[in-house]
Amino acid sequence: MSKLGNLGARLHRGEIGYDFVKNRKIWYGLSILITITAIVGLTVRGLNMGIEFQGGAVFNTPKNTSASVSQAEEYAEAASGHDAIVQKLGDGSLRIQVAGIDTGAANEIKSTLADDLKIDSEQINAELVGPSWGEQIANKAWQGLGIFLVLVVIYLAIAFEWRMAVAAFVALIHDITITVGIYALVGFEVTPGTVIGLLTILGYSLYDTVVVFDSLKEQTKDLTKQTRWTYSDVANRSINSTLVRSINTTVVALLPVAGLLFIGGGVLGAGMLNDISLSLFVGLAAGAYSSIFIATPLVADLKEREPAMKALKKRVMAKRAQSAAQGGTEAHDEEAYADEPEDAAPAVVGPRNQPASRTRGRGRPSGKRR
Amino acid sequence: MSWPPVRRSGARWPEREYEKVATPKKGRNASAQSKPGRSLALILIAIAALTGGMFASGHTKPRLGIDLAGGTSITLRAVPEAGNEAAINKTNMDTAVSIMERRVNGLGVSESEVQTQGRENIIVNIPKGTNSEQARKQVGTTAKLYFRPVIATEIAGGQGTASPSPSPTGSPTDKPSGKATDKPEATDKGSASPSASPTTQGRAVTDALKADATPSASASDKGDKASPSPSGSGGTAEGDANALQAKYAKLDCTDEKTRSSVGDGVKASDPTLACGKNAQGQWQKYILGPAEVDGTDVDKAQAVLNTQTGAGWTVTMDFTDAGAKKFADITGKLAQNQSPQNQFAIVLDGDVVSDPYVRQALTGGNAEISGNFNQQSAQDLSNMLSYGALPLTFKVDSMTTVTAALGGDQLQAGLIAGAIGLALVVIYLLAYYRGLSFIAILSLLVSAALTYTLMSLLGPAIGFALNLPAVCGAIVAIGITADSFIVYFERVRDEIREGRSLRPAVERAWPRARRTILVSDFVSFLAAAVLFIVTVGKVQGFAFTLGLTTLLDVVVVFLFTKPLLTLMARRPFFANGHKWSGLDPKSLGAQPPLRRTRRPSAPVETKEA
Fold first, then answer.
1. What pTM was computed for the model?
2. Interface residue B481 vs chain A (CB under 8 A)
3. In the CATH hierarchy, which fold is given to the domain comprising A56-129?
4. Over chain B, what is the mean pLDDT?
């Protein structure tokens, strides 16, 4: 812990840190690459939609069913007249999926199956889904997604500013695309559980992004009143200083999901728990990545286009050039400041933006530095 | 993150200036912060009250959903009828819900629940131990009942032409009707006999019932030789009649698809085509006149084993006063006609259930439907008729049957997953935050207690049922809740790294952590709320839990974590930065407090960030 604590402290002081903003092009490139891969995977392979989206039936036999997979497959196909997919689950039960049958017909199939497999038909778990049901769930999910995105963009635009809203929006789309793309590429089955997981990612991914933005907003307040740091510098520092928290958050969020995934996948075999946790797992990882590597650098990019920020950058550059030219001890002094960068930036402004102190603050640095 | 920053070598204005400026806020902050005991007491009272309420109301466990407790869950969707989409409105949906509820309860099932979800869905949850297929039929059947006069009928075999149907021996007359006058003779064989024998070629269908809309055409029926020969009254009615005749000729009732779509979208006041099975199990097709009496005229219905006529299980209906009068009128008219036009068809959801003929007006105010009923189907039908027809047509969209065994397994798996998740988070917190994690774990426990009691109480209060997605939501929420602590703790540590001692650090860190927590929880809650409002079914359960736990997270952080940390900060263990407290300035790498001497430590101010 002391090591981690030290790391936190050094990140906090800006002694160490990764220049996320400076290297953003690399990460943009990586993300674009992943996104393209995802989209290609999506168009070429398509999603493996579960029975819930095609209409059909899923039957689960009780534990320790004696029949073999191929036997069950035969029975199911004979009973339904459609192709059946049979899986044997961890506890010896069988999961039989038959696509494209009507909800009415499913009941007969169930009792036929029960006879063939020599199980009491009341012991068979059945899930019958009409073809329009999955579509409806998916449609509602899209609708929910749309409404949520609009609301969130509005909210972020009010609470922060439109650039952050745009960046958060891009990061969110990025996360969803990647998650969906992974589903397409790996061929995981998409079920309503997946949709639930996907929708949760929305909240979670934003949650993470919002925390970084919050710190960014705080640090860049009255940024223009100093000349030591550009917006990008401060943005980068924001990321680095919240890095420990981001990592902790992601770990703490992923741990329960990992528990779910382990239980859902390992013990229950397949089902709702597994579906939700799988998409959550993928999405959370993507969300943590995007809030650090995509969202904040994007804000910095957008922000640097603002005339005020351009001017600031110019001033800062000029200043740095000047101090470099002066060289010697002066430059060394500047180095010393670098130890507490995040102190320095808001120090000019920060909490002391009450009129009295601001006047002083403004007057002083110039006097002192020159 | 450090803000407001501490002045160190680079500080650019005098310390005192800052203190002075900050002072005015003192009063407010002091009152807000100096009573941690009060908040703690408040939340403990809340927990005690909720727990007490839970035990007092006797709902000590959250109500379990179908997927955890076992049972059948049916999702029905209202199918819009062409030209009548507006019928899917709240009133009709509510009516449908109450009818379904009564029907399901009529099966003798207790604890079933029927509720609307979204605009056009109804979810029916029936606990274990019910015949799922029977339940599905009960809720899914519209049960629109019409009494329509028969205009023409014949056996509709697969091959339309080959049907000079053998007139069966059992002619209607040989069936003594026990209760002579007051019941229409339920000629379950009748249809085959009187109508079929004279059929083969076109037989004039004189419409004795309604002059306006009914066909007065000569019904030339046979599929191949269909030559509709209109005879008489012109106008559109005739055109319609001809169209009907043509359709009738082509109608093949043995085809299931045709059968299910025949008569779709026909109004009660229009003549229609229909199919039905006769006593020999053959499909028979009909042209039927406008409905004269309908299901709303039925007062109540019951299944009766008719031993006197040997008709087996029948359903007897008592009409309302108005219904009885209408029924007497129509039977009186029909009795004067010739076969088959002295028959009327009892049409249930487009199918002819029975087509008795009438010899005289029936004024008794009741009627009997006989058909191929057994006890169960007779009881089911009477159950449906008693509670009336659904105002809308519903389609079964999904139906899930979960055995109690699987439900138990899933519940267990969910609980284990939750326990594992919680344990992992606790271990991580312990490893990373050491003594500080004590506060985090207590907060998690408080949060868990609140969630559990609220869920238990919400079961009876608003019908909340804990299903698998909801369990997932709760597990995922562990992360969100723990994150609030992380945000706060990291802030506190940052303050300590600035060289502050613990108590001021705790107070200074709070306003900024608070804002971050509120903003991020708001986003999370927004997601949950949108999901809850927009989506249906399982997604909704998930969204509900997520929203609930997010709200509780805010409550817990404000009323528990923060006050507890304030209190704990007074303890030497934390305040002195014990090695295991998680707040040891040295291991946090705090800056040596270079200027501590200049900085009076007493009045520490929190600032709104």
1. 0.67
2. no
3. Alpha-Beta Plaits (3.30.70)
4. 71
